[in-house]
Amino acid sequence: MASTGGAHPPPEGGSGPDPQTPVLRINQLDAFELDSALDQLVWNQFSQCFQHFRPGLLTPVEPELKALLQLLLWRFTVYPNSATVGQSMMNLRYHNTLSLSQRYRTLSRRQRLGLALLTVGPRWLMERSHSLLLSLGLGLGGSPPANGGLRLGLRRVLSLITGLTQVANLINFLVFLRKGRHPSLTERILGIRAVFTKPQAVRDAAFQYMNRELLWHGFAEFLIFLLPLVNMRKIKTTMYSLLYPLGVGEGGEEGVREGSVVWKECALCGEWPTMPHMVGCGHVFCYYCVKSHSIADAYLTCPKCGVEVGEAKAVKLQIEITDIHAR
Q: Region (Disordered): which ranges (predicted)?
């Protein structure tokens, strides 16, 4: 058999791609997300190779380097296989819709080159537009009498082209959501679309398993939403008061004066109390602890005994100095 130039199309038997089988919209969008993540990953790995060089070494040529890396990915993915990395992971590949045949047809050479140009070119031009204007003397530093009208006109044209492109992309995406084909304007222009590389097997999953998974997924989301709203400190205080109804906090201020151990640590942070204050129970708090928690929780209660926090009052201790040398 004589070989043809370029990529070899897969066999057109029953196991080959079937252009008549519709591709899920989510599969096509996931392929785009995977390609974007791959581009960012390749750039991060490439830039890390120069992390020990002078800072900002790659900044002047960053758009060109990104375009070069994208072209390298295109050369080893789309050009030989008619599929990006993301499409390969999603069991997809490009199909030439301009062909009159009902069977699968790989992309033509013109379509491959057009895909590379329309994918890499606009990104590079968007990042380099400001530098190009400066190189042509049309930047902000140009002389207004000499090129003011030309600069303003060129900027308006660029703004108009950018706006029209964004509107066209939006319309194309809405059409894609309606019909499920051509998620990007580039694919619609070139006449290509994604098809399944291999026939999709029917997934045999029991409804009980699916229902159980959906139930647990919904329950997990409910807990993620509910837990930040639960005041765990109040629950702990309530449980503590139920288990120990006669806590150490019933001694009041007398317990502190009598040398009880409750004043040796803050009831909130557990450390030696800084600027010790009391709030109506027999426990001592750091001034900043009780103030900050009172601002965050208007109904703050003592975590030791469950008493509602009242006005913070400074603890006054009687210190007796004795002469250790006196016998």
A: 1-22
